[in-house]
Amino acid sequence: MSLWDTPLFCKLAITTGTFKVECPKVTRPHMSQDAMIKRRRTRQIKVGGVRIGGGAPISIQSMTTSRTSDVAASVAEIRKLESAGCEIVRVAIRDSRDASAVKAIKSKVKIPVVCDIHFDHNLALACINAGADKIRLNPGNIRKREDVAAVIKAAKRARIPIRVGVNSGSAGGSTPNALVRAANRYIKIIEELDFRDIIVSLKASDVLSTVEAYKKMSVLCDYPLHLGVTAAGPYDSGIVKSSIGIGSLLMEGIGDTIRVSLTADPVEEVRAARRILSALDLRSFGPEIISCPTCGRCQVDLVKIVADVERKLSTVNCQLSTKRPLTIAIMGCEVNGPGEVEEADIGIAAGKGSGALFIKGRIVRRVKEKDFAKELIKELKKI
After folding, report:
1. What is the pLDDT of residue 170?
2. Segments of the chain with pLDDT less than 50
3. How far apart are CA 349 and CA 358, in angstroms?
C-alpha cells in the first residue's frame, strides 16, 4: 500500500481544464474550553481611554524614538504607530523641554501618552500638569520617599496611574528575586500613600529571569502586569526572545499589556505584539494566513505569493467573525494542500504553475500562479 492509498493523504490531479480532489473530510478541532487560556484576575486600571487588567483585552504598547521636544517628529511617529495597531505609546522625558512638549503632542494624537521618567521627579510633575495619561517611575533612580509622595499626590489629583517600571539595571541585580524585591519595596511606599492605580513591570534582558520574576510577582499582588523582555536586541533575536518570554507568560494567563522591545523600527514592535496575541488566540487583528514552509514538492513561488497576499491584505478592511478570524490557506503542493485548504475560509492548493481555488471547502475554479494573490483578495472581499 502506498501513502496515496491511506486515508491520511489527499490526491490533487491537475489536468488542462479540471481539478480532481480525493480527500477524506477532516474537521479541524476548535479550541476546547479546557485548552483556552485562563487569565489571571487583576484590578482594572484606566490609561486614557484604554482599560488594562480586569478582563480587558491585552493592550499593545510601544515607545517613540524621536526627541520628545520635537513635537512634529513625535506626533508623526505616534500616528504611524497608531496606524500599525499601537494602543498606548510611551515617550522619553529627558528634560523640561520634553515635558513641555507633552501637552502639544497630546492635542494632536488619539492614543494615550505615557511619560517615562528617570532621576528627576519634577519632570513627572510637569508631565502630569501637561496631561500625561500615565507616568512610568524607575525605582532605581527616583528613590526619595518625599519625591515619590509628590508624584503620587499629583497623579491622584489628575486621576492617572503609575507604572512601577523595574528592570535589571535598576533593581540591583537581574535575578528574579532582586526584580521582585525592588518592585515590592516601591509598591509598599506607594500603597502607604493610599494609591492603588498601579501597573507593574519587571524586565530583564534574560528570558528565564524575566519569566520567573513575573511568575513570582503574579502571586504577590493583583495589579496588572506590563510584560516585556528589556533590551531584547536586534530584530531577529529580539523577536525570538520576546516571543518566548511574553508568550510563555501569556499562556499561563499572566500579563495585561505588552511591549516587544526591539532594536528596530517601533512599528515592528507593534506588528510582533499583534502576532504573539493572535498566535495565542488572545486577540484577532484580521485574516490569518496558513501557508506551508515549502519543500522540493512545491512547484510555485510560494514565498513571493504569500508575501504578495500579506501586503495586499494590509489594504483590505475585513469584517471579522466574532468567534474566530477568517483563515486564508496558501499551500504549495498536493500532499497537505487540499486538506488544509478545505478547512480554511478561502485558499489555494497549488500544483505546477496553477492551483485550485477553494471557498468554504469547495473548489470553485482553477487559477494561474500569477493570479493567486489577486484572486484570493477578490474573493476575500466578497466574504
Report:
1. 74
2. 1-30, 319-322
3. 8
- Angle, vertex CA 261, rays to CA 135 and CA 279, nearest 5: 110
Residue 354 within any structural domain of the chain: yes
CATH code (residue 269):
3.20.20.20
Domain encompassing residue 13: 3-28+286-382
pLDDT at 10: 38
Residue 123, Ramachandran bin (φ over 0: left; ψ between -120 and 50: alpha; else beta): alpha
Question: Considering the domain boundaries, does residue 152 fall inside one?
Answer: yes
- 13 in a structural domain: yes
Angle between helices 176-192 and 145-158 (to 10 degrees): 60
Q: What is the pTM of this model?
A: 0.85
H/E stretch holding 291 reads strand 288-291
CB 345 within 8 A of CB 326: yes
E strands, 121-261, are 134-137, 162-167, 198-203, 226-227, 257-258
pLDDT of residue 18: 39
Q: Is 22 helix (H, G, I), strand (E, B) or coil?
A: strand
State percent of the chain over pLDDT 70: 88
